[in-house]
Amino acid sequence: MVEFAAPSLGTGLISVLIGFLVVFIIYLLIIGFVLWLAGEIVVGRRVTFVEALGIAAVGTFLVGASIAFLPGWIGLLVGLLVFLLLVKHYFKTGWLGAIGGIVLIFILGALALGTLFVLPKIPGL
Fold first, then answer.
1. Which helix (H) or strand (E) holds 41?
2. Is 10 helix (H, G, I), strand (E, B) or coil?
3. What is the distance between the alpha carbons of residues 91 and 95, in angstroms, rounded to a whole number?
4. Closest by CA position to 37, among listed 48, 24, 28
5. CA-CA distance, 117 to 77, in Å (whole number)?
6. Is the pLDDT of residue 103 over 80?
């Protein structure tokens, strides 16, 4: 009798894709929250979480593409400019507000990463 093997989610390309999708969704939620909080502080108007998720999603692909396809520092600077334009457009602010938002995003992102990865390793907490 012939036995057919059932597809397994434990190994293979499907599990890698599912794992990537889960990590990407978690990444979008964390970065979206940081963007939303920075927008609330810097812009002063009600910034929606959907706008923040839009910046996180579109920014991830555009900045990643600019870094991947442009050499060295040029790609990094173009990626930073793209992200600045996204913040300026979605948060409906001027250049100084967008720069302030990006600075605050980096600070809040560093605090979030520190909270997630450094605090659990401190003994006694």
1. helix 13-43
2. coil
3. 11
4. 48
5. 28
6. yes
Say if residues 88 and 95 touch (Cβ distance below 8 Å). Answer: yes
Residue type, 97: G
- Pairwise CA distance, residues 50 & 8, whole Å: 35
Q: Given a cut of 60, is residue 88 above it in pLDDT?
A: yes
Q: Is the pLDDT of residue 81 over 80?
A: yes
pLDDT at 120 over 70: no
Describe the chain by its helix, strand, coil percentages, rounded to 5.
80, 0, 20
Cβ proximity of 30 and 105 under 8 Å: no
Q: How far is 55 from 68, CA to CA, in rounded Å?
A: 19
Q: Are 68 and 108 in contact (CB under 8 A)?
A: no
- Among 90, 102, 99, CA closest to 45: 90
Cα 1 to Cα 81: distance, rounded to the nearest angstrom: 63
Whether residue 10 is predicted with pLDDT greater than 60 in this model: the reply is no
